[in-house]
Amino acid sequence: MTYFLFRKHWLWAAIPLLLTSPIINAAEAETENTPNKTSPVDVFELPEIEVVSTTPVGSSGLKLKKISGNVQSIEDETLNRHEATSLPDFMNRQMQSVNINDTQNNPYQPDITYRGFSASPVLGAPIGVSVYQDGVRVNEAFGDTINWDLIPQIAISSMEMMPGSNPLFGLNTLGGALSLRTKSGRSHPGFNAQASGGSYGRQNYQAEYGGSHDQFDWYFAGNIFDDQGWRPYSPSSVNQSFGKIGWENDKTDIDLSFTFADNKLQGVGPVPQESLQQNWSAIYSAPDVTKNTLYFFNLKGNHWLTDQLKLSGTTYNRNNNSYSLNSNTGSSGGTCDTYADCLEGGFSPATFQAARAKQNGTGVNLQLTSDYKVLKHENQFVFGGGYNYAKTGYTIGTQNADFTPTFYEVANQPLTTTVNINGENTYSNVFATDTFSVFDWLHLNASANWMQAHVQTLDKMGDALNGNNTFQRLNPSAGLTFNPFDALNVKTPLQEFTTYFNYNEGFRAPTPVELTCADPNAPCTLPNSFLSDPPLKPVVSHTLETGLRGKFSAALKWNLSFYETINTNDILFLNVDTTRGYFSNVGKTKRQGIELGLSGLALDSLNWYISYGFVDATYQSNAQLFNGLGAESVIAGNKIPSIPANTLKFGSEYEVFHNFFFGGDLQYVSSQYSRGDDTNSNPQIPDYAIVNLNTRYVINKNVELFAMGKNIFDNHYVSFSQLGQNFFNNNNPTQFQGPGAPATGYAGIRVHWN
Predict the structure, then answer these.
(1) What is the largest CA-CA distance in the chain?
(2) What is the distance between the alpha carbons of residues 554 and 600, in angstroms, rounded to a whole number?
(3) How many whole angstroms separate alpha carbon 380 and alpha carbon 447?
(4) What is the rounded CA–CA span in Å between residue 69 and residue 546?
(5) What is the pLDDT of residue 575?
(6) Cα(58)–Cα(87) distance, rounded to whole angstroms?
(7) pLDDT value of position 581
(8) 3-state SS string for 574-616
(9) DSSP letters of 361-410?
């Protein structure tokens, strides 16, 4: 069986390579004999990051000394060194102020928090981070969620975490924005493939090929991931492919890319803590299934009108079909409250909720970048805008079910459709940003982005869910960078020293799912039911950040930053019981913190880093909220749950002897309050630490062996918790906890040639 699975997967992954074999064969000889050329037209395709883009589409870039914020830039070499299972896995193990709440217990479905703001695939999470792939925003249209399984990690050339409420990165950029750039055949020529396997039946196969011929270049990649899961009923299958074909000359660069994914993810979620104490792999109910199928075309271009004037743009079509089947406790008619009551009354003790979302987004984004000097001073001015439209068809159905002895649900009646709505989102914006160099040691920046969000819902089963809302706002930003040592002409061992200050504002419009579930008298069971609701106000964020950075040498680079973000009209999902709730504006919230980063390359082959993040997330208004246990009165100063105050990360890799590399990393996460414990009146889930090890041996220039161990000390830890009632234990209050994966190990082989 394993052999046939292996053969099927490699045939699937090889399709894009086979389709391009005529091109490859025709150009192979010339590719081998032609030196690697890198076009200056799009600097963001380079394998090494020299500049930072100030917009999602990408300008000609700015040197880091002109950037007034703690931008975290990552190259694909760093991504590969960690042998990370998924992009969230890498971010959690290295990046400052990033943490995982493992709500679904699936490597491709975690909640990511950055500076206390959420980037989650779970419908109903308060999203505060935007994500871009090659200039296109990939937050889903219906709930602004982020499906991490639809991002082709193998094809990522570089990524930047932009901090704060940067208005140039549009909607949802309350705490930050993640901008991803994909590889091209000109920047990443050659062939690479790898196969690995290990604990709990995991198999992973990857292949990529890039090349160029005259003015054309091409890049294709595929990723196959299968895992049976370490808990019952939690297998996952991820199938991704990516292709890019490009043409360029000395003035123009055009790339057409296509991302495809066909994934089936299963996770069994949090469990009452008393069940975990008896069995670490216990489940509460199953199955919980998510199926995602993505077709994403993106045409991206750059054209230099003059040596200092560049026109850039993207136009795209992104089609994502999602299906979810969630198992829940209790009868759909609400006729019994506990498991014993259901059995005694002859009612079904379980329900299925099925939701299907067909989301199609298309748009165009253009910008003009000028690098002409102003009064003989360096200056970059960018002006642009975009029009983005998305349409969603969303249906929900429910059916009663029974439990098997293993808590697996089996339906006992047909599915009944309860909701059928169409949603439309139209997002328009016009922006301008300017960076002016007063001196080589003083740079000023100012930006503004006018955004309008039009959100409309159409009820196809009546008119109760019809809605039409428009939100708009002008969001500003201003900052400066300053090198006092250069200003005073003082010689110090510090290199590239920069201090900076920045103020910016961001904006998040309510999504269709939030607008149709905002009535406390008619709570929704996400993602199951909606009613006509009062309008919500948009969230506005205000961020102040100051910091400094520099390096002593390649062996020691460092950064230190301080920030504060205040949200007004924050939107939260307030539970009225374990599964139902509603969205509401809750006044002001604040996230403030510190970030510290140390990294370097020492002793020729020792790569190392230390990342520390401190986040103090609090409510700034008194509010009457609800959780799975009832009403709670929050007062200003209460901690926001599910946000640990301290995260510390350390990692390194060293060439122990010739061609043998050994490395590891550690993540420490401090205690945190359970979701729903907004009054901070219950015990926190404890802090924890995880240690991972990895090693690789380079047999020759074409073959490499590698292995990794995760959570090698088999630490039993909890990364997520939520207050609720245990249906199987007379609805007694408890913490539903998300257990961390036990010790696992994987090994594989990697081949490559140019």
Answers:
(1) 85
(2) 6
(3) 12
(4) 7
(5) 60
(6) 21
(7) 64
(8) EECCCCEEEEEECCCEEEEEEEEEEEEEECCCEEEEEEEEEEE
(9) EEEEEEEEEE---BTTB-EEEEEEEEEEEEEEEEEEEEEEEEE-TTSBEE
Amino acid at site 336: C
Query: What's the rounded Cα separation, in Å, for the pair 603 and 593?
Result: 33
Which burial class, exposed, middle or buried, applies to 26 when counting CB atoms under 10 A from its CB (0-12, 13-18, 19+)?
exposed
Report how far Cα 630 is from the mean position of its chain's Cα atoms.
Answer: 32
DSSP 424-485: EEEEEEEEEEEEEEEETTEEEEEEEEEEEEEEEEEETTSSTT-EEEEEEEEEEEEEEEE-HH
Cβ pair 327, 339 in contact under 8 A: no
**Residue 490 burial (C-beta neighbours within 10 Å; 0-12, 13-18, 19+):** exposed
The first and second tokens of residue 462, run together, are 């009546």
CA–CA dist 272, 267 (Å, integer): 16
Which tens digits make up the pLDDT trace of 631-685? Answer: 889 999 999 999 999 999 999 999 999 999 999 999 999 999 999 999 999 999 9
pLDDT, one tens digit per residue, over 259-297 is: 999 999 998 989 999 999 999 999 999 999 999 999 999
Q: What is the DSSP letter of 175?
A: S
SS3 (DSSP) at 678? coil
Which of the two residues, 525 and 754, has the higher pLDDT score?
A: 754
DSSP state at residue 316: E
Picking from 547, 562, 668, the residue whose alpha carbon sits closest to that of residue 99 is 668
Count other Cβ atoms within 10 Å, centred on residue 713.
9
Amino acid, res. 435: T
Distance CA 325, CA 128 (A): 26
Phi, psi of 69 (to 5 degrees): 180, 165
Listed in sequence order, the residues at least 6 apart from 272 whose beta carbon sits closer than 8 Å to its beta carbon are 284, 724, 726, 728, 729, 734, 735, 736, 737
Report the C-alpha gap between 479 and 640 in whole angstroms. 29
* CA-based nearest residue to 296, from 270, 317, 321: 317
Q: Residue 526 has what pLDDT?
A: 46
- 8 Å CB contact between 449 and 468: no
| Alpha carbon distances (Å) from 68 to 63, 561, 658, 725 | 11, 11, 41, 47
Spatial CA neighbour of 293 closest among 324, 265, 323, 321 = 321
**Strands 718-726, 111-114: pairing kind:** unpaired
Q: How far apart are CA 741 and CA 102, in angstroms?
A: 10
Cα separation of 592 and 245, whole Å?
43
Nearest 5°: phi and psi at 335?
A: -85, -5
Tokens of 277: 């104490």
- The Cα–Cα gap between 592 and 115 comes to 8
Residue 351: name the closest of 311, 307, 398 by CA. Answer: 398
Task: Name residue 104's amino acid.
Answer: Q
Measured CA to CA, the distance from residue 364 to residue 300 in angstroms comes to 10
Rounded-to-integer distance, Cα 289 and Cα 88, Å: 20
The terminus-to-terminus CA distance of the chain in angstroms comes to: 34
DSSP classification of residue 135: T
Angular region, 124: left φ>0, alpha ψ -120 to 50, beta rest = left
What local confidence, expressed as pLDDT, does residue 579 receive? 55
Give the tens place of pLDDT for each residue, 89-125: 999 999 999 999 988 889 999 999 999 999 999 887 8
Helix (H, G, I), strand (E, B) or coil at 203: strand
What's CA 645's distance to the chain center, in Å?
20
Contact 62, 50 (CB under 8 A): no
Query: Do residues 688 and 102 lie in contact, with contact meaning Cβ atoms separated by under 8 Å?
Result: no
How far is it, in rounded angstroms, from Cα 663 to Cα 83? 11
Which tokens is 730 given?
């007379």
**Residue 213 to residue 186: CA distance in whole angstroms:** 9
Q: Name the percent of the chain lying above pLDDT 90.
A: 73
pTM of the shown model: 0.91
CA atoms in the 13 A half-sphere facing the CB of 372: 10
